[in-house]
Amino acid sequence: MTFPCLAKANVIFSVGGTRTRRRRKAKGDAKKRRLSDEQVRFLEMSFSDERKLASGRKAHLAAAIGLDGKQVAVWFQNRRARHKNKQLEEAYLKLKLEHEAVVIEKCHLENEVLQLKEKLLEAEEEIRKLSWSVNGGNLGSSFSTVSLQPTLGEFGMEEEAELANTDEYDFHNYTMEWTNPYGI
């Protein structure tokens, strides 16, 4: 017994315990045919003008190139899908390049931070050596406050770091000069 309503429907066949889907062809169905180069060029030009396809436009295009309206509609749907995929690929490549550039910049900045930290440690060590030699080994002098500047400066407190770095020795000299203007 045949059922005409199932002529084009997907039918499930069971072969050897596995299920496969096959589409039955109705009698008179033509094989899928490729569009000619001229038809494709015409559809591409029409697609570049407008990506959406209204029913009146579909009928006009189908008549102009000798296709069925359904074929034109399917071609436009497939072309929109290809266009969207191409846009996604281009956006992905652009983002990938931007990401790689940012990663490279991050690496450069991290290397620069490491180099600056090394220089800071070297400078602090040099200050300690100078302080030791100037003070004769006395760690309680005013020069020991110099090591506070990098610590305070790291937290965006540069003004406080400059105040903390004021040498008492220089402060006393200025006071003495101010109180004794004649140098006597």
Describe the protein in words.
Helices cover 62% and strands 7% of the residues. It has 184 residues and is mainly alpha-helical. It has a two-stranded antiparallel sheet with strand order 1-2. A hairpin with a 2-residue loop joins strand 1 and strand 2 (18-23). Helix 2 packs across helix 3 (69-134). It is rod-shaped and about 105 Å long. The termini are far apart. Residues 11-15, 141-149 and 167-178 have low confidence and may be disordered.
What brief labels describe this structure?
mainly alpha; 6 helices; 184 residues; two-stranded antiparallel sheet; rod-shaped
Q: What is shown here, in short?
A:
With about 180 residues, the protein is mainly alpha-helical.
Chart the SSEs and their pairings:
Elements: E1 10-15, E2 18-23, H1 37-49, H2 55-65, H3 69-134, H4 148-153, H5 158-164, H6 168-179
Helix pairs in contact: 2-3
Helix amount, in percent? 55-70%
Q: What value does the average pLDDT take?
A: 75
Total helical segments: 6
Instruction: Give the helices and strands as they follow along the chain.
Output: EEHHHHHH
Euclidean distance between termini CA atoms = 132 Å
Number of strands: 2
Indicate the overall shape: rod-shaped
